[in-house]
Amino acid sequence: MAIITTELVKDLRQATGAGVLDCKRALEAKNGDFDKAVEYLREKGLAAAAKRSGRTANDGTIGVYVHHGSRVAAMVELNCETDFVARTQEFQTLAHDLAMQVAAAKPQYLTRKDVPPELIEAEKNEYRAQMAGQNKPEHILDRIVEGKLEKFYRDTCILEQSFIKDEDLTVEDLIKSAIAKTGENIVLSRFVRYEIGE
């Protein structure tokens, strides 16, 4: 069995934000392997986050971002369960980062469930029209249309967008990691984006 040093526990805690005992247990469970311990804590945190998703989030904050030059601004409503969490610097930073995401990435919807069915049909028809005359079998066309529709969702639904500060994370992953750290349900309820001339 590998020797678990306090320095290793401290490094894992800094990397993940997990508690000292959780970090120590993760390192012990993964025989001192730092990367495996990080993954272990991440999976554990995401599982815990999934359990919390049903809890009511009635508190929270409004996150605001105004871009340099004051020509673009965005606001988000980010909810959590208690005012204690809502006042923390981490929660306030998350709300600000999500407002920045809205300003930069121009999402139109929270989730794919919010996209009107008639818009989805219009998108599918447009994709089919783009491929007209390519003599592809129908099942191939269907797969291409579905692939393009997935990209449409990633571009227009904020929870599916890549986080602007870390392209490897989606906004939904970012919120889930915050849930894992705070121990509370966190919900992005709504957002609005303003741009001069639009």
- Can you tell me the overall shape? globular
Counting DSSP E segments of at least 2 residues, the number of strands comes to 5
Low-confidence sequence ranges? none
Write the H/E string, N to C.
HHHEEHHHHEEHE
CATH class of the largest domain: Alpha Beta
Proportion in helices: 40-55%
Domains counted in the coordinates: how many?
3
What is the CATH superfamily of the largest domain? Elongation factor Ts, dimerisation domain
Gap between N and C termini: 62 Å
- Helix tally? 8
Give the CATH architecture of the largest domain.
2-Layer Sandwich
The biggest beta sheet reads: 3 strands, antiparallel
Strand percentage lies at: 15-25%
CATH fold descriptor of the largest domain = Tetrahydropterin Synthase, Chain A
Task: Record the strand order, biggest sheet.
Answer: 1-2-5
Report the C-alpha radius of gyration, rounded: 21 Å
Structural class call reads: alpha+beta
Mean pLDDT: 86
